[in-house]
């Protein structure tokens, strides 16, 4: 299994070189540049344009296109027998369900997952010390908080302990923005959720952990914790979970205890605004940045452009002492060995095994298929099996050593690449990344989504067509990699863009559109 160690760091670089090489060949062989074979061992290539029956392509040999292959979908570049593994990214992405001839479209009709059940894992470490950055030390301008964290926004957040008062919290935020819009703060925001009462066990604790993580988040210069008064997640219990807090930064209000809850809330927000507006942006090293890594609505180009680009960003950030957080555990299935063998120690490896098998057991408890992914949108975009999706997904983590594995609702404590337990669901995992301490999230997509979390959510498109069509959703175009722009140029542009977002020089589309949501993971019963 040592190939897990030697191949994956090369793939990120190889992808970029192959793209550039294919584009350079365009003038000589137009038909060659219409497909990309990512790794020399691959038995399939990805169509850059829709391929029509009768066309002839060439790689190692002539490839007659035997049927329509849509853009982003796979075409067989070698014959494959029924039951044999199909290779993409240099790794198996499943097995052929029937004989596949060279030039055939490869998708759900002739490819099935090779994954099944729980697995035993063996730690075969392939970790190394990251090379420090050789160029200048980059900085951003952030807000230094009294607990030592640095925020990239100076907002007032209303965190309600229970869903019964969602609309009340929203109304308070609206009135506060109208009253205090001229203050030196970046706005007042409330985040709706349906929980905080009628929950038991882990669900109750998860709600408390996520909400307390948001209360502690450095992007909030001030926080109003708003409670009803009779909920399970009552104020006294929530304070115990929250732990230490700064009295000037965090205020509490139980609305059942006052005659006019809106008037009392506005008074407290005014105090929070007076406290928060004293903070000014100061120069901070990039090492203070914690960036969440997320993908949603992927297509076949996500694993070729956007995800490897974010992986290159992650490596750059970690080389400068920063922190990247990778989540979506079900979208590690089939590629988990690669991450496990990059764990810094056996202890971290064991935590990663517990995380992976624990999520599989969660599916099994409800008698659901472990490998149900990909989604219909993923399949429409050309992704067939979970192995294929996972091999593309984990590239967001770059080549960094895994320094820690975090439970759902936990916060980052170690610099470097962290794995965070959580589902693939876009808003649940984005919320978990924010609650873990990520000041912003890099969110790759090939299908497009307007979604935004409680922190700036940078949408990175895998293809230019989506960028042009959904300019009001997309922040950065990784599709430029398919059009001749060099990988080194694009990754530096993304790094500079992120620093501008962190410094407040740019707002993300979700901020401009005011799309800010949270969602909390639910497992058990509701009373």
Shape: globular
Strand order in the largest sheet: 19-20-18-17-21-22-23
Cα gyration radius (Å)? 24 Å
Helix content: 25-40%
The tally of domains stands at: 3
User: DSSP helix count?
Assistant: 14
Q: Termini, distance in Å?
A: 48 Å
Please indicate the percent range of residues in DSSP E strands (runs of 2 or more).
Answer: 15-25%
Integer average pLDDT: 91
Please state the structural category.
alpha/beta
Count of β-strands: 23
Low-pLDDT sequence parts: 17-32
The biggest beta sheet is recorded as:
7 strands, parallel
Describe this entry's structure for a reader.
By secondary structure, this protein is an alpha/beta fold. The protein folds into 3 domains: 3-112, Archaeosine Trna-guanine Transglycosylase, Chain: A, domain 4, CATH 2.30.130; 140-282, Rossmann fold (3-Layer(aba) Sandwich); 290-512, no CATH class. The protein is built from 14 helices and 23 strands. Strand 10 (139-144) and strand 11 (150-151) form a beta hairpin. Helix 2 crosses helix 5, helix 3 (201-215) crosses helix 11 (426-435) and helix 6 (302-319) packs across helix 13 (487-502). The chain is globular.
